[in-house]
Amino acid sequence: MKHIEYKEIDEFVYHDTMDNGLEVYLIQKAGYNKKFVTYTTKYGSMDNRFEVDGEEYSVPDGIAHFLEHKMFEKEDGDVFDSFAKGGANANAFTSYDRTSYLFSTTDDFYKNLTLLMDMVEKPYFTEETVEREIGIINEEIKMYQDNPGYRLYFDTISQMYSDLPVKIDIAGTEASISEITKDHLYLCHDVFYHPSNMVMIMAGDFDVDETFAFIREHQEKRGAIKPIEVNRLLPEETRDVAKSRHDLYMDVEETKVMLGFKNEKIESASERLTRDIAMMFGLDMIFGEQSEYYYQLLEDGIIDDSFNFAHNEEKDFAHVLMTTQTDDPERFTASILDIIEDIKDQDFFTEEKLSNQKREVLGDYLSSLNSPEYIANQYTKYLLDGYDLYKLPDLIEEITVEDIKKYIFDSLDRDYLVECVLRPESQREAVHG
């Protein structure tokens, strides 16, 4: 067992790898009543093509999310009910590159931990239950397709990416979901729910030795599990956008626009995180509610209080999204591009602004370390991205004004911009004549 101490922030992490390859991290929070656990597989919606021991497989889109749903259903009932009876709150989510199962509790920790491990490690699928789930998820997909914000987001992503599966809804499509069989589910579980592809993170007040011994004994009872070699097969994606502009019509009252700036992916985990933090600082300086540009856009009626922006940095893709409700989407786009050009001709990014942002972000970060949920979820995210949550303050302090300039001006490049406009259905004829 490895013990890691972060003296500057008074945090303690214990790490061990089970004989079957499962990695376990225990974050000790002395005096806390609540315990929070995430059990995560490095398997997400983008993993629809892969190679196992030299043999290539292609599975229907949406299968990772489908599998997440099915893991809670066992022959003897719904595992959610069992967690509730044990005094625990349980949940799960699927993203582009991972699926996490989690619970929090103040009572019967080992009982709930056993329940979590058994649920994730022991699949149960039948043709009947799969067919029933197809109907449930297809209804979920239809519901999302009727959501204007959701449609605007995915239409924008689809404009940006030509081949990368990020452009496909995490839940899949009605057509792809209807192709899923129990054999697909067992295949993907065998491949991606292998203990060597999973990590467990725990945050709370534990008897460290007892907890690791409990997990080790549970894993040993699974018996020998054959090692496998998995190669994820992702298509190459250039920075060029698939389509620069698109109009979407739905039964809405107001027009909304979303801009997407597509970026190059970065191989280095530390550089990805550097860009992510630098972009967060830079975007907030330009468009945050304290900036002059924000107030001018608001005063001129170009944006309203729905305006928001975000930089999304992942291992296989990166982009910036901006959106607002507006009567004049073309004016919004032109104004954003004008602002980007304007800041190139002045010393807009300053040490004073950066110092203020660093103090605010570090304050929020340190405050968040009081939450076992935040710690377990974020430790999982940074670990799977190749970084350490507790080294984040050092990286934040290292960000410079030059970093911000470098990444902002490269990322907000109009050559890699897409514009998606969601208009009321009544405007279709007026726009197209």
From TrEMBL:
One GO MF term: metal ion binding
Ranges of residues in domain Peptidase M16 C-terminal: 180-359
InterPro entries in alphabetical order: Metalloenz_LuxS/M16, MPP/UQCRC_Complex, Pept_M16_N, Peptidase_M16_C
Highest taxon, organism lineage: Bacteria
Domain Peptidase M16 N-terminal span(s) in chain numbering: 61-173
Gene3D superfamilies in alphabetical order: Metalloenzyme, LuxS/M16 peptidase-like
Name assigned to this protein: Predicted Zn-dependent peptidase
The organism of origin for this protein: Salinicoccus kekensis
